[in-house]
Specification:
With 161 residues, this protein is α+β, with helices and mostly antiparallel strands. The protein has helices spanning 13-32, 35-40, 57-60; strands spanning 44-56, 68-71, 77-94, 100-122, 126-129, 133-135, 140-144, 149-160. It has a six-stranded antiparallel beta barrel with strand order 1-4-3-2-7-8. A hairpin with a 4-residue loop joins strand 7 (140-144) and strand 8 (149-160). The protein is elongated.
Length: 161
């Protein structure tokens, strides 16, 4: 006959240190990403105004109100296009004497667009789209929709409460 004796695992100092280390990592991650406020707070809605400089006139027709735009690199949702206003693109030319003249580019337009985006706003970190991606005035963003891929310059962010 076999004698089946199993050793009981005894709780020791190494087990205690391992558990405390794992808990410290979890708390550190929660503090770093501000998970408490993100999990308890509903997302904010903001109106973001962007400009697209020197867009081809043919491509301006592809800016369709209601289209959803995504980041080109991460494929995460950026927002929904609410309005578009185009104007002839302006070029600033400097001649040899230093005189600046402004001329209109013949087949290009500047488009000012407003989008509705969802994310989280706080005084410390600013506006975070989807809670993870920072956006601020002056940010350049590469976005795409079903119809168009382009680069935007953020002009204004208005957070709604």
């Amino acid at each position: 006959m076999k004698n089946n004796t199993q050793k009981k695992h005894r709780f020791n100092i190494i087990d205690f240190v391992l558990i405390v280390t794992v808990l410290a990592c979890i708390v550190g991650i929660a503090v770093r990403y501000n998970l408490r406020s993100t999990l308890t707070k509903e997302s904010d809605t903001a109106t973001v105004t962007v400009v697209i400089h020197k867009l081809l006139e043919e491509n301006a027709d592809h800016l369709v109100v209601g289209d959803t735009y995504f980041y080109q690199t991460t494929e995460k949702t950026f927002g929904t296009l609410k309005s578009v206003k185009t104007s002839p693109a302006k070029l600033r030319l400097v001649d040899q004497s230093g005189t600046v003249s402004i001329v209109h580019h013949p087949d290009r337009v500047d488009a000012v667009c407003t989008l509705e985006v969802r994310g989280y706003y706080s005084e410390e970190s600013g506006f975070m789209i989807g809670g993870t991606t920072y956006i601020g005035c002056g940010s350049n963003i590469l976005v795409r929709s079903q119809n168009l891929e382009t680069e935007w310059l953020v002009l204004d962010i208005e957070v709604h409460e």
